[in-house]
Amino acid sequence: MADPAGRPGTRLDRFRAEVRDWLTLNLSGEFAKARGLGGPGLEHQGHEVRLAWERLLGEAGWTCLGWPVEHGGRGAAMDEQVVFFEEYARADAPQRMGHIGEGLIGPTIIDFGTDEQKRRFLPPIRRGEELWCQGYSEPGAGSDLAAVQTRAELVDDEWVVHGQKVWTSLAHVADWCFVLCRTEPGSQRHKGLAYLLVPMRQPGVEVRPIVQLTGTSEFNEVFFDGARTAAGNILGAPGDGWRVAMATLGYERGASTLGQQIGFRRELDRVMEQARAGGAAADPILRSRLTQAWIELEIMRFNALRTMRSPADGEPGPEVSIAKLFWSEWHRRLGELAVDVRGAEGMVAANADPYEPTAAQRLLLFSRADTIYAGSSEIQRNIIAERTLGLPRS
């Protein structure tokens, strides 16, 4: 995001230079090998070095930029956050391991947590010492989150949790999980829910990785069989879970989306380079698809900037669904295009035994999940139709 006045040496120029210089200096030596590691379909890469990098970011004050200063953040303005995520993506820095803690549960604790909860949970997130996962989706409650059946009962001074979550990103490496569950027997839909903070490393928690089309396992099933957490590890009051859960989803609309789009730009640039090198760019149909992908990525950026300038109070609005639907469907089409520009070669695996897809094939396969997780495309269309266009409920 350019400085509004466009002058050299402005606040944003200086901040951008500071970020760029720090990344250049530190993505060298022992962390040079961390460049480009991780990301969708590649979350298994470089766990230890990425975890060490997360802690280095914390030590240097580059985590939790937008958090208030009194909670350990920088209190950075939105334009500074955008600059950081853009430069982080351009530097090909490793994919963050603490983004769920920093971007989702951290802001939720700041807004809904007690002073004791803030003292306990915020510092380890900021320092990159504790990783989090999100316990929302269930086998019968994916995009329809209000159908959750995981239950918790207060026994003496602990919540005892029973149930199953699925498609839980990074649960296999997480220390904590924020779990949406029912604490009122017989309650339905949005009523009777609670938002619990549950430690993952205990006998009552079993994590089973889900093998994806790419052959890797970023997503997991999580089984709670008498898992326990302290009575005080609840955000809001019992019955308040839906309100807190919706606030968490609202935090997903942030400056990091601009960094995501820089990653998309790199992927599109690689597809275009392949199209030129292999001659596919001479095909009028493929050339039209490449042009359309470029145009839509520009639209995606403008819409993200517009959305971040709009109020973010209350439940996530339809603009969040518009953005999710747009980028996920765009990314899926890019995966198809990445393989198509390679012609017949695009169908041949990089290695057959053991199976190893090429980068283009991995993009094709993993991007299918983009249209499902965080609310499927079908659900996003329903939200847009009902809340924006006023159409009858399906």
Automatic annotation (TrEMBL):
Domain Acyl-CoA dehydrogenase/oxidase N-terminal span(s) in chain numbering: 51-129
InterPro entries, per the entry: Acyl-CoA_Oxase/DH_mid-dom, Acyl-CoA_Oxase/DH_mid-dom_sf, AcylCo_DH-like_C, AcylCo_DH/oxidase_C, AcylCoA_DH/ox_N, AcylCoA_DH/ox_N_sf, AcylCoA_DH/oxidase_NM_dom_sf, Mycobact_Acyl-CoA_DH
Domain Acyl-CoA dehydrogenase/oxidase C-terminal: 239-388
Claim: Flavoprotein is one of the keywords in the record: yes
Acyl-CoA oxidase/dehydrogenase middle domain location: 133-225
One Pfam family matching this protein: Acyl-CoA_dh_M
Cofactor requirements of the protein: FAD
Taxonomic superkingdom: Bacteria
Keywords: FAD, Flavoprotein, Oxidoreductase
PANTHER family listed in its UniProt record: ACYL-COA DEHYDROGENASE, ACYL-COA DEHYDROGENASE FADE29
Family affiliation: Belongs to the acyl-CoA dehydrogenase family.
Protein name as catalogued: Acyl-CoA dehydrogenase family protein
